[in-house]
Amino acid sequence: MKKSMTAVLLSAAATVAFAATGAADGPTEANIKKLIEQRLGANAHVESVKETPYSGLYELRVDGEILYTDKAAQYLINGHIFNTANMQDLTKNRLDEINRIKFSDLPLDSAVKMVKGDGKRVIAIFEDPNCGFCKRFRRDTLKDADNITVYTFMYNILAEDSATKSKNIWCAADRNRAWDDWMVRGKAAPTAAANCSTPNDKVLELGQRLRISGTPSIFFADGSRVAGAIDIKTLEAKLATVKQ
Question: Cα separation of 194 and 33, whole Å?
Fold first, then answer.
């Protein structure tokens, strides 16, 4: 609790002030958007502006992140807002909401499929073959998960040879075994034939569109996501909340 409150105080102390030039009378979300983009410069793209119930603040969505400003767009706040009654992270809740996807829209034919047990519980993971955290998640967490279907999208963002490793695995006779051989046992897949096509570019484009900046990134059947490796207890707790 102390750490969360400290984060709030530090965020407030780090508030960045802007010169209040030309603020319109009776500002609207459109006016705020225009003012903020002018003051942040040409590279700024404000995706949306939304009034919040938090003391007159407005939520700004910028490149998938959330910032806050006042109605005159004079101040910009970079940080999380907490409800002090229960220390609930309201900003995180909002990020979870806006980053939710439609699971059925994922191109599952571009993923490596693994089924354990009855496979009734379903997740999708974006992993890089050079990702140490991905290897740990697969080795220490997924091995203990049962009755689950895992779709793995090989998302090549960490090293120059990631795409080559992914191609070799995709073109292997048994993709699922080849992926586990590499990620869990460190056994490389045979070199793929030059004419073997892969969904590498398609998956990279998909991940960028979903604003996946790190691996592993785990998506659940309800469209929610978790960034980073989690342990089996956390995975099971999350799966228990998801309606399959």
Answer: 49
